[in-house]
Amino acid sequence: MQRSCAALACKQLRGSHTFSALAGALNDIHTEFNIREKIVRTTTDNGSNFLKAFRVYGQTDENNNPEPAGEGDGEEDDGGQNDDDNEEEESGQGVEFVDAGALLDKDDYLEYQLPKHHRCACHLLNLVSTVDASKAEVNPLYKRLSRFTPVELAFLAEYAKTMSPVAKALDVLQEETSVQMGWLVPTITLLRTKLQHLHVASKFCEPLIAALLSGLEKRFGEMLADPEMIAAAILVPKFKTCWTSDDNILKLGLDYIRSHLDCQTENHVSEGSQSSEEEDFFSSLKRTGPLETTQQLDTYLGCPGDTVQVLKSIPAVCQLSLKLNTALPASAACERLFSVAGLIFRPRRACIGSKNFENQLLLRLNKAYW
């Protein structure tokens, strides 16, 4: 129940960093380490090339299939069946020429298979605190006070007090070993609540708080209503159901957990008792029913402990928690990789080869394993 982290690759991409080039590089790494079926979610920054790569080649929430894109609208080829007839036709008749190379190069967007995608929460919060916060300056009074003259110390103090919860939320979400995906929804929910409380007593920063709340809704609204994200939060013993008083939100997460606990139990039984079912006529009576899975969830929610040790005594809940909370809510770990890479790739090593550079970087980042 303790997170382990490792760097797998730092590849050089030649040419333009297009969405298909990124998808191909990620697909190659997943194949090389045989982890394609093990990845539950990939967290990246909000670059347009990354977003398009996962939008085109990634799984969707509905049916876990890549989005249908780039479907051809050309005429069907007859497979060469009428070649003999065509030779007998007069050259004066209209002839349609088809570029065979274009047909061969046609991309049906099924070449790569990428997992579900998650946008970096820290990057989104940075956008909220900069891009969205700047919209507060449409208020002329706020804009005038925000120009920071010595007589406006009260404004500066209130501004710092307003931005403090945002900074703390960033610190929480960019952790690597002690934070799981289930921390995201409670952190943003609590941040929103703190800003709403500050809004009541604010004298100068009301436009700023309104802009921040609007930015949180714009960038995190879908995540805060995602049943999988809510379920991940509930399955973190530190939070369970105490992080919100909205019964509708909790119901979304609890319904998701119950349905997936039932599916998980059925899959486990079918895999573990295939051979015995052929011999034991009464094997179906041994299967775990919906009541037992509900009891496991109730046992977990009623347990007073708030450490990961609570999960070990409830195997089905533990397995689902591991599945939903393996991914990280932010891509700060990759940013740290780039910082270490900068220490290696110094001016005196400008001629180092890409493979040599990658090996040195991975040796330094994964020194705990050798």
Q: What can you see in these coordinates?
A:
- Among the domains are: about 40 residues, no CATH class; about 160 residues, no CATH class.
- It is about 55% helix and about 0% strand.
- Strands 1-2 form a two-stranded parallel sheet.
- Helix 1 crosses helix 2.
- About 25% of the residues are buried.
- About 10% of the residues have low confidence.
- It comes from Larimichthys crocea (Large yellow croaker).
Keywords:
2% strand; 370 residues
User: What does the radius of gyration come to?
Assistant: 27 Å
Q: What's the count of strands?
A: 2
With helices defined by DSSP (H or I, 4 residues minimum), what is the helix count? 17
Give the neighbour order of strands across the main sheet.
1-2
Q: Would you identify the regions where 5 or more consecutive residues have pLDDT less than 50? A: 62-92
Overall shape: it is globular
C-alpha termini separation: 22 Å
**Biggest sheet descriptor:** 2 strands, parallel
The portion of residues assigned to helices is 55-70%
| Multimerization state | single chain
| Chain-averaged pLDDT | 82
Structural class of the helices, strands and pairings?
mainly alpha
Strand percentage lies at under 5%
Return the string of H and E elements. HEHHHEHHHHHHHHHHHHH
Organism: Larimichthys crocea
Protein name: HAT C-terminal dimerisation domain-containing protein
Concise account of the structure shown:
Residues 57-94 are annotated as: Disordered. This protein is mainly alpha-helical and 370 residues long.
Topology:
Elements: H1 19-32, E1 42-44, H2 48-57, H3 83-88, H4 100-105, E2 117-119, H5 121-132, H6 140-145, H7 153-173, H8 184-201, H9 206-224, H10 227-234, H11 247-272, H12 274-279, H13 290-302, H14 309-312, H15 315-325, H16 332-344, H17 354-365
Parallel strand pairs: 1-2
Helix pairs in contact: 1-2, 5-7, 5-9, 7-8, 8-9, 10-11, 11-13, 16-17
Protein name: HAT C-terminal dimerisation domain-containing protein
Region (Disordered): 57-94
Biased composition (Acidic residues): 70-91
